[in-house]
Each structure stands twice: as structure tokens, then as C-alpha cells.
Q: What sequence folds into this?
């Protein structure tokens, strides 16, 4: 009897441990949390996709699984601002070719969530300007990762006054210590963040660029893949 009880307890422990391991990749609501590994010619990054922006999350996962981003470029790089990629026209693009207008024939409705902001490492969707896109709908494929810089209280207050927005205490602290691009908040959908390899953003952001902020030497997205964390 003792052996049976011990065996039963061990089984319960293993089942519980296995369940705990299985649910590590889920949020408090039981939704799966997706992580994407971005392998580049300058190193690898891992981004976490936010469940609070499901349309952008699901679209990005679909494109990653279909291999849409493999062999594309970070075609627009601006130091202390961001690195942008995902233009389908950048695959096999010739040197000096103007990029940034490519798409997949559809857009994604904006998903603005106040708690998701443009801190350093934020993953956000590129889009056309307000003049032709008043609803601020996102490009289906083009994205950017924020580098930005650090903002003290006075600089943030200027942004608040100019843009008619306010930052929480937490956001102000993050912008002051980690940095980011607060002036983009509420205008572009943030749908993820870099959780590993933030130094790769800095490395890419530092490359020499030519006309239209395209790197002089191609910065390639070698491959993207969904990974378990």
C-alpha cells in the first residue's frame, strides 16, 4: 500500500510539473505567448509578441511561418531612432535601389494599447502617412524595432505638450533609463518587444547608411522562426 501511495504521489508531481512546464509559454489568460527568433547578418534577436494586439500578432506569426521575412533586408536604418525591415522588394534588391514601398496588398487595423509603448526594443508596425491613411492602418509586413535614446523629465514634458499626450510614471522611468521614441506613441501599433539580443539593434543602428537611410552594406534578415521559451 505504501509503495502504491508513493507511486501515486510521484505521478501527481510529474503531471503537475509537466503541466507547469507546458503552461510556461502561456499568459495569465491561458493564451499562448509567441516568441520569434530573428536571425540577421549582424546577430540574432528574440522578440515576444503581445497578445493585447491579436491582429498584428496573428499576422506576424503567419508571415514568419510562411517564410515571408527570410532573406529580406533591414532597408531603413536611422541611428538613435529605429531599424526597419520587411519590404518584400528588398529580397535580391540591387545596390542603391530605393526600398520601402513594398507590401502584400492588405493592411491591418490599428491596435493602440496605452500600456504598450515605444521603449527601446519595441517591435512596431510601419505604415503609410496620415494623409493617405487617416485610420493609421499598419503595413501587412513592414515593421521596425526601436533604438531611440533616453529622455529626461523636461524633454518628455515637451513631447506631452506638443503631442497632447501624457506618460505614466512607469513609462517616464523606462524612457529615462532604457530610452525609446515616445513621440511615436499612439500613432503606430506596438505589438512586441525584443527580449534577447537588444545589443544587435544597437549594432545594426550603427552601420553606415547612404541615400534614403539604406545601409551601404546590406543588413540581412537571414531567417525568422517561431521558438519555444
A:
Amino acid at each position: 500500500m505504501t509503495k502504491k501511495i508513493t507511486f501515486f504521489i510521484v505521478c501527481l508531481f510529474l503531471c503537475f510539473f509537466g503541466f507547469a512546464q507546458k503552461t510556461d509559454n502561456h499568459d495569465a489568460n491561458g493564451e499562448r505567448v509567441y516568441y520569434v527568433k530573428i536571425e540577421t547578418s549582424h546577430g540574432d534577436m528574440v522578440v515576444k509578441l503581445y497578445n493585447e494586439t491579436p491582429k498584428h500578432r496573428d499576422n506576424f506569426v503567419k508571415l514568419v511561418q510562411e517564410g515571408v521575412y527570410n532573406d529580406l533586408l533591414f532597408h531603413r536604418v536611422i541611428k538613435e531612432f529605429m531599424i526597419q525591415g520587411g519590404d518584400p522588394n528588398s529580397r535580391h534588391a540591387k545596390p542603391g535601389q530605393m526600398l520601402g514601398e513594398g507590401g502584400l496588398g492588405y493592411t491591418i487595423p490599428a491596435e493602440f494599447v496605452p500600456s504598450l509603448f515605444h521603449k527601446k526594443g519595441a517591435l512596431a508596425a510601419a505604415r503609410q502617412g496620415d494623409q493617405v491613411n487617416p485610420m493609421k492602418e499598419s503595413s501587412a509586413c513592414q515593421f521596425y524595432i526601436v533604438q531611440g535614446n533616453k529622455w529626461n523629465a523636461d524633454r518628455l514634458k515637451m513631447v506631452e505638450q506638443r503631442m497632447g499626450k501624457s506618460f505614466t510614471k512607469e513609462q517616464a522611468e523606462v524612457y529615462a533609463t532604457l530610452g525609446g521614441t515616445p513621440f511615436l506613441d499612439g500613432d503606430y501599433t506596438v505589438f512586441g518587444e525584443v527580449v534577447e539580443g537588444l545589443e544587435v539593434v544597437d549594432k545594426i543602428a550603427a552601420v553606415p547608411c547612404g541615400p534614403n537611410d539604406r545601409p551601404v552594406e546590406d543588413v540581412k534578415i537571414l531567417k525568422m522562426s517561431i521558438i519555444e521559451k
Summary: The first helix runs from residue 2 to 22. Residues 4-23 have pLDDT under 50 and may be disordered.
